[in-house]
Design brief:
8-stranded mixed sheet, 8 strands, about 190 residues, alpha+beta, about 30% helix, DHBP synthase
Length: about 190
């Protein structure tokens, strides 16, 4: 795991399991590497994944009342398969969401190995590990075959963590002035109003 963490910290593309599908991840300031590797349309933003709500707070901005609502939802569902799309702070590189740099999707995965990595690297720009338009890859072997330059974990490190991915992407909920708008329904259900 130390080689993957060192690679991520130095700005290389990495992949690791999460509670949904394996992530393709990179430092936020190197986000363009994900778009290039996946051949991804820049209209599809990346998700900022962190080890805790506290680690993600500097990347969002809102009123005290909004922060209270967001933290309540985060407390109920994180770690878990819920991505919250919130107003982005100036700390979010525009390359993470080129068509709308005013918002950022944030998530804390329910995966011991992902949390262990993110606690060392800090929040990372993430997306599913696959070429754009293709189904998410589910094993490290598939990821290594499709993305030979991406750093992955050694199989022995994976067995030790017993990470179980559900294979379903996270629910994506965007904050609006009227409450939550569900952009993608996954396994987590949330109320549309705070």
């Amino acid at each position: 795991m130390s080689a993957l963490i060192a690679g991520a910290t130095s700005g290389k593309l990495v992949s690791f399991p999460t509670d949904t599908v394996p992530a393709l991840a990179v430092r936020p300031d190197c986000s363009e590497l994900i778009f290039a590797a996946k051949q991804r349309n820049q209209e599809k933003p990346l998700i900022l994944m962190g080890d805790s709500a506290k680690s993600l707070l500097p990347f969002v901005r809102g009123t005290a009342a909004q922060l209270e609502i967001w933290q309540k939802v985060a407390h109920q569902h994180w770690p878990g398969a819920l991505t919250l799309v919130l107003p982005a702070s100036a700390r979010v590189p525009a390359a993470m969401n080129p068509t709308d740099p005013t918002t950022i999707g944030v998530r804390v995965p329910s995966s011991r190995i992902a949390i262990a990595i993110l606690s060392q690297t800090g929040p990372l720009a993430t997306t599913s590990a696959n070429r754009s338009g293709q189904p998410p890859l589910e094993t490290m072997a598939e990821i290594e075959a499709q993305f030979p330059d991406v750093l992955t974990l050694d199989p022995s490190e994976l067995e030790a963590t017993q990470t179980v991915s559900i294979g379903i992407p996270s629910t994506v909920a965007k904050w609006t002035n009227n409450g939550w708008q569900i952009l993608r329904q996954g396994s987590v259900q949330i109320e549309p109003y705070p």
